[in-house]
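Example record used in the benchmark description.
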Amino acid sequence: MTRRVCVIPGDDAAPEAVLPSLRVLQAMEPGIEFVELPDGQAGRREHGDRWNDVCIEAIEATDTTLFGSSSGATPAIGYLRYGKDTYANVRPTRYLPGAESPLRNPEGIDFVIVRENTEDVYTGIEGDLSLLTPLKLTSRRNNPLPESGGRFAIKVITEEKTRRVVEFAFRLAQRRKDRGHRGSVISACKWNVLPQTDGLFRDVAAEVASEYHDIEYTNYLADDFARRIVATPLDLDVVVLPNLYGDILSDEAAALVGGLGLAPSACYGDDFAYFEPVHGTAPDIMGAGTINPTATLLSAAMMLDHLELGDAGDRLVGAIEAVFADGSTMTPDQGGDSTAEQFCDAVIERL
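Model output (structure tokens):
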């Protein structure tokens, strides 16, 4: 059965990673029909006010989406995340021998951060402090709330959405344990400072953990966990975090293994998933052709697994690993001078 994949290149330098990566996927011939959309600016010029609708229609007409990154010209990210309720943002961190890691010995780093993807401060509820004055709010630290002269943001943590992402993390840990990993889950938040919101996340995570007797479980304060990512990364298996901490700490994790150019991700809901690199649109190198496509390719490998296309995902990862081990076709962020196109050509040769 042919799978249909919507390819959204994104904005700025992102298409310079997505389009060569698409060549790699087409060279593999894994039984996929690709529905290609234009980059953000071209899409706006071509479709005008219908550009958002065009993206949504393409997403709905296909089985999954490979997404570049958006700086605003490509409107689809909001629909992919909130419209499709893709609540579990899975961000693997694994060292590829040959990558430029700042650590003396990064060998063996292989863990996954599962980031809650739909609430926390990312609900976008902000405003002027004067709007809170009628509520007569008081701080539990007896710190008076100013009536004006500042802004506020609302952090939303719910039991339902916490439970489902934590359960996702534990199921992932079970699957990884079956493949020889440690079989552990760590959660982290700032429940000592935010006992109502982060405290709820901590308590719900502990309740879920009590139902999975075959998986180790530990909770840390987020700042302590930030230290552990660097100090003891080999101790980590699956980590589940609220939205904001997950976004920040997964970028820290990526630095261990060579940077955001090597950081893939997938966003899963109950009946839909899409795939995108962790990095942004890199407008500073737009047009240079030197953006690292590894994160996009590794995201595509996760997509191939999701589509259940046999060993296609493993084949792609193996080819990427071979290019890194050879080291002669690295992009500038990895100490080389190759373009994204040349890197992808090298991956194709090793397929």
